[in-house]
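# step 3/5: fold
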Amino acid sequence: MTRKLILSSPLLEITISRLCQELIENQIQGIETVILGLQPRGIFLAERIAKELSKHLPETPPIGQLDATFYRDDFRRRDPVSPNSTHIPFIIENKRVILVDDVLATGRMVRAALDAMTAFGRPAKVELCVLIDRIYNRDLPINADYVGKSVNTLSTEKVLVEWTEQGHDADKIWLITHP
């Protein structure tokens, strides 16, 4: 197994700041924006985005956590998993929802998240924001609206995002190759 560093501080902070500027530029007049971090690792990026947006907006968009474990099409085929919590303390009906995840790979998790989200209302618009887009890996025709960095990957490679919130010494994103 080999590890190649893709992104770390301070470039990671600059990337998150750029994503926030794009989110601000694409605001829809008259429609409230809310942020949903996809469990488990998308919540760390969502919290960072909300914190950065609070520096530039008079009102920070509400943030929630969405777990789509039971909505995955491979749920019964995978090893037993323990679901994470869903916490959405607001209505998403007629709002601009920014779905946030750390890595976009096959698109299956995003499809599951869209299904899970319908239990909370029908948004006016849904946009996807990811830190890493693993291009050439998609199973479904899903693309992100906001991308921190695109990475060419093979099926034998994995992207690992390490956040300080998870107990790591520093924020780092690795490309891991299995022989």
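# step 4/5: annotate
The chain has one domain: 9-152.
# step 5/5: archive (pending)
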